[in-house]
Amino acid sequence: MSGVALDSQDSALIPYVRRVGNVSHLDLIVKGARCGGCLAKIERGLTELPGVRQARMNLSTSRLHIAWEGAADRADQFAKTLDGLGFESGPLDADKDALQSSNSQTKHLLLCMGVAAFGLMNVMMLSVGVWSGAADMSGAERSILHVLSAMIALPVVAFSGRPFFKSAWRALRAKQTNMDVPISLAIFLACGLSIFETYNGQGHTYFDAALMLIFLLLVGRFLDARLQARTGQAAQELAALRQVNARRLEENGEISVVPASAVQPGDTLIIPVGAHVPTDVLVIDGKSKIDAAIVTGEPIPQSVAVGETIYSGCLNLDQALTVKAIKYADDSFLSEISDLLEAGQQTQAKYVRFADRAARAYVPIVHTLALLTFFGWLAVGGTPRTAIINAIAVLIITCPCALGLAVPAVQVVAVGKLFQKGIVVKSGQALERLAQVTDVVFDKTGTLTRTDKFADLSQVDPEDLSVFAALAQRSNHPVTAHLQNLSTSVGLADFIEEKGQGVSAFVDGVEVRLGQKRFVSSQATSDEAGLWGWIEGEAHINLSSGETLRAEAQSTIATITALGLEVGMMSGDAQERVETIAKQAGIKRAQARMQPGDKSNAVLALQRDGAKVLMVGDGLNDAPALANAHASAALTTGADISRAASDIVLRKDDLSGLTYAVRMAREARRAVLQNFGFAAIYNFCAVPLAVMGLVTPLIAAIAMSLSSLVVTLNALRLHRIKS
Amino acid sequence: MTALLWLIPIALILGSAGLAAFIWSLKSGQFEDTQGDAYRILNDDDKPLLTKVTSNDRA
After folding, report:
1. Cα(A629)–Cα(A634) distance, rounded to whole angstroms?
2. Cβ contacts of A59 on chain B, cutoff 8 Å
3. Is the Cβ of A40 closer than 8 Å to some Cβ of chain B?
4. Tell me: the pLDDT tens digits for A371-394?
5. B36 and A59: CB-CB below 8 Å?
6. Does A53 have pLDDT greater than 70?
7. Which among A82, A441, A558, A710 is placed 20 to 30 Å from A184, CA to CA?
8. CATH of A1-96, one of 1.10.3720.10, 2.60.40.2230, 3.30.450.20, 3.30.70.100
9. Nearest by CB to B39, which of A36, A103, A111?
10. What residues form DSSP beta bridges with A632?
11. Which residues have a Cβ under 8 Å from the Cβ of A112 and sit 6 or more positions away?
């Protein structure tokens, strides 16, 4: 993010400070802290400041807690210190932190896992005794061990099995089934049968099998929850960095800084240069230019004057504005768009996860099989007891233990690996959808191309450059951001700023100009995009092309095509420019003059023809298309809304991660299929044994742990996939 | 068989001790930043140590 946006946050942290006695507390999200060095730098840098009691960085969640003695207004100083250390930070409302709840959920799963492990180990110890000493042991002695097992196992099952029981109960009450229904059934039946056998003092008990089932499934559940927490947090982190505050003009004439959510319609707000507009507003004083790219996707600034409406999320570029809020931030334009997006995302949510699809097919087969076993044994003259025991054995042995672990284990490895490479995948489901993609559609502006900031200045004479840098620093316009950072000692005279055109001044009596081509050069006929500079008596120089193809775009498109995907491009831009960029990038199918709705319709049309589209975009204008596409990716530099709508966020300002993400998603799908294949083979071998009544608890225990081990090891193979 | 009367309670007590330790570590937030703690152990906090040494030297 540019320095402009940071400035707007400078005095805006105060609403987030909590006071406890004389000590102030602040929670921040810190971007970019990824290693031990960063952690030490941040904690030391802040604790060295006077009065700071504690600065504790949580590297896993990117959250920083600061506690200090004294007034709340020191908060800005910490943000500046962090900025100086090279870390961008944003305030965090600790009460609304979604991570808290997901954290407590993972913690609870971890607790259940610990308890299950304890019970499992102790029951297993007793079971080993029963099995190894079977020959020498009297029935009474065995009974004692069984009773002991029951005493350990039953409370543990009751405690650790709750995540499955609750979910199964919820599903049954809604007259549906899910994976947890057969799981819970198997656990209940295994425990019930074991109690019965213990009471009768004969036969086998399945306490260890029930516990192992719970433990291994909890591992899968835990991995899944952690994956969700981590990806959800990454998305939240991106949003928090854009946290908007408002400067409200109070009745006594003072300006107070409040969170955007506290603004009410009718409030008078001041929008300083470089600040985002917190809610939909009406201009009541001032004239400025705004960057409405978040709304229109157009990078060219628009003029606004008194009486005009500005939508939330726009960036004020030129002069401070006095405005009147006309809506609550929660029903502002941006929020409305978010709601639309959610509607679009529900189409994506219709996608049924692989494991659920497998479970839907699997559950009826298994239950029929158990029923057939029961009647089969009765038919061949078995006692009802034998028939029931064998039917239950079928249910226990076929319980989708490997299924519960097969998918999360693979997805955790794949998503973790992608995360290391700066690619945030929002959910395991997104990874599954990404693997099915057949077409990739790119947006042009901002996605395949870069605008303004990245010009090649090495060709420009250094003396001329320092003149333009001086002009740029006086103008302070974001378009000249790359020039403002250069050092210069040139003195300017008669500085004049022509709004929306450029700036001019005299250096030692020589006129210099910086701005649009037509402003800089009187001969210019075409309105060529970009930033131009001119020094009297010399030719005009291009200081920034309007738009250039990303360096990695061509190679990325080549590798994506090599994966067998169809590549296309859609842009709101004019035909000619779209064709030029498409040619450079090596894209054959390019569509120009597409409105946001057109893009979305085009994506839907493609999908009706059987294609599965991966949409890659960055602006709000892409958001509907992103939400409707089968899978979607956004760049981290893009609008919040497009990031929110996307399955994948590329953290680095670099497209090349896309190919790796698709490859990884495909490999993950393959690994999941292999795991399911393995589970099928395992069932193929084990079920006949169970039907024939040959499965002992020993076989059940060995088979279950072995299958889970194989599934996990197979998932770990994904680590070897290179980018 | 009488050995079992000793061994099973001992096993259970040791197991519960392990479980109690796990629950304590979970409650005290030791699983909250597994990534950061892995690095934190490597950051030696040598600044207070140095001031201690120099003040001892002066004394």
Report:
1. 12
2. 33, 35-36, 39
3. yes
4. 999 999 999 988 888 888 888 888
5. yes
6. yes
7. A710
8. 3.30.70.100
9. A36
10. A615
11. A159, A160, A162, A163, A218
Evaluate the CA torsion angle A177, A232, A641, A560 in order and state its sign: negative
The answer to whether A113 and A225 are in contact (CB under 8 A) is: no
**CATH code at A245-328:** 2.70.150.10
A573 is catalytic: no
Model confidence at A46: pLDDT above 90: no
Q: Is B9 on the interface with A (CB under 8 A)?
A: no
Type and span of the H or E element at A440: strand A439-443
Q: CATH code for A462-545?
A: 3.40.1110.10
Say whether residue A110 is in contact with chain B using an 8 A CB cutoff: yes
- Best B1, B6, B13, B34 member to test A by mutation, with max A CBs in 10 Å, is B1
Chain A residues whose CB is inside 8 A of the B32 CB are 58, 60-61, 103
Contact A36 B23 (CB under 8 A): no
**Can you tell me the ipTM of this complex?**
0.76
Residue in A with minimal Cα distance to B33:
A60
- Give A276's DSSP letter: B
Place of tokens 């061509």: A554
Top residue of B2, B35, B45, B46 to mutate, by most chain A CBs within 10 Å, is B35
Tokens of A433: 């959808």
B7 or A540: which carries more pLDDT confidence?
B7
Matching residue, tokens 């842009």 = A571
Residues 6+ apart with CB under 8 A from A149: A123, A126, A127, A194, A198, A205, A207, A208
H/E/C letters for each residue in A398-421?
HCCHHHHHHHHHHHHHHHHHHHHC
Two tokens at A550?
A: 């990303």
* B10 touches A at CB < 8 Å: no
The tens digit of pLDDT for each residue in A433-470 reads: 899 999 999 988 778 887 654 456 666 777 788 888 88
Q: Is B35 on the interface with A (CB under 8 A)?
A: yes
Is the Cβ–Cβ distance between A480 and A465 less than 8 Å?
A: no
CA distance A558 to A440: 12
Q: What are the beta bridge partners of residue A30? A: A89
Q: Cα A375 vs. chain centroid, distance in angstroms? A: 51
Q: How far apart are CA A619 and CA A613, in angstroms?
A: 18
* Rounded-to-integer distance, Cα A137 and Cα A142, Å: 6
For A601-647, how does the pLDDT look when each residue is reduced to its tens digit (9 = 90+)?
Answer: 888 899 888 889 999 987 666 777 887 888 888 887 666 566 666 78
- Domain positions in chain A are 1-96, 101-235+355-410+667-720, 245-328, 423-450+549-651, 462-545
The residue count for chain B? 59
Class of domain A423-450+549-651: alpha beta
Catalytic residue among A224, A443, A573, A622: A443
d(CA A9, CA A208): 57
Give the tokens for residue A271.
């929008």
Residue A2: per-residue pLDDT: 33
- The residue whose two tokens read 């929670």 is A27
